[in-house]
Amino acid sequence: MRVSKRASAVALSAAVALIASGCSSGGSGDNEGGSGNADGAVVINGVQPENPLVPSNTTETGGGKVVDWLWTGLVEYPNNGGAPQNAVAESIDTSDSKVFKIKIKENTKFHDGTPVKAKNFVDAWNWAAYSPNGAANSSFFADIAGFADVNTADPDGDGPKKAPEPKTDKMSGLKVVDDWNFEVTLSAPTAVFPTKLGYSAFMPLPDAFFSQKPEDFGKKPIGNGPVKFVSWEDDVAIKLTKFDDYNLRDKMKIKDVTVKIYQDEGAAYNDLLSGNLDFLETIPTSALAGEKWKSDLGDRAMNTVTPSTAFIAFPLYDKRFTNEKLRKAVSLSINRQEISEKIFFGTRKPADSWANPLTPGAKPGNCTVCKFDPTQAKQLLTEAGGFQGEMVFYYNADSSHKEWMDAVAQQVKTNLGINARAEGVPTFAVFRQNINAYKMKGPYRAAWQQDYPDVENWVNPLFVTGGSSNDGKFSDPQVDALAKEASAAPSLEASHEKFAEAVAIVDQKVPSIPIYFYGQQSGHSEKIKKMELNNVGEADITSIEL
To answer: Signal peptide span per the entry (predicted)?
Structure first.
């Protein structure tokens, strides 16, 4: 749920290699980008990660951005919105979009000093795909031949039956050729596959990972990125420092990064103004009114757009929400334009499509239930048999969501006559734990920040049965079949057209409801003289100069 803003997907010809061209992260790539930077330190805001930091088990942005800093993948997504570029990969070649020959650079290291080899990718991918390991991102490996032999599903959800034991723990489609080369065979040609390879699920793991419990590794992670792990005090801070042996182009220009964990964005904003915080990713809504944040920060104010969308998700495992007419009624009762103007002062755009329009392959305006139509909403509610009892809309209270979630609940109450209200869960970590345990008792705030620049990333993880972030347990055989056809399409154009058909079914079923497209307002301290945001609006720590 993290990646490129306007990146275009990789076009594959008869034989293609992703070639590194230019600098993806700003700056010259020198360790000491500016005078006095080499021993510098910055403090960046964050939230408590949901889980220990294992890349293939991290699906939320709190832990995700730290994982992105600690690891470097085969490819990376440039800040400027260009196509994916090689990072650890020396080359990625294919003649048929089915068999990919991957050569990695020979001189990169993990933070424990061991070399990054082809087996570290293959072993990591096999571990993630093997269903008994419970990696949340396991579905991202479904394209690879042999996935079905290592990944089995519970035949009745959380019922009494258990998933059958997989036939093996290694996918037949992965083959280590030698220390620096491996081969990936997919079950069908998949044009978007190389675009995916910069997402954190595909990161390598050191040999040390396999000699300990994943949760123990994740509390003291060993990556291969420009910074290495120092310490983690729950709900307080995560400390990182420059990895001196890092030799790819996006080297650090400063030494230390502290991710300070906040439970309140207002407190973070006050710290930014007082100089106790060096970068705040999201300005709280209270500071947007009258453009107060601009007058507070001056030329330290940063304004951008990201390929991210806010949703309201439904717990479809709760029988009260199984009627699609009820879900449509809720969506049609929400005035997105009013929320954009009155809550966000025009800094967010009303959502009108299922995939963010900044994404390659996304079709604008394809959400028919995103319009505001209280008359039709009331009619659909009647046809659904009404709604009994209280409808509680949940959100995490450690970020600026109270105002817009209160507005959503009030509109549902006013326009449908449902006894609705919004309720905050104290922290994002607890909020996500409840979602992952399927314990949500009402609609809840959700958001999707794309993992890689293709519309596929807005369908397979969210709406395919068993998708990595299909948190509401939506399942539709038509969507599954169309998404499978789309994923195996021989060209990106054909894939995008087939995904559009799948999205049309999603639009009929309404498993969740898009609310707004993110605009991002950020700010940095006077200490920072130069910095860039990455392709999803997070701080590019390798670009920071003091």
So the answer is: 1-22
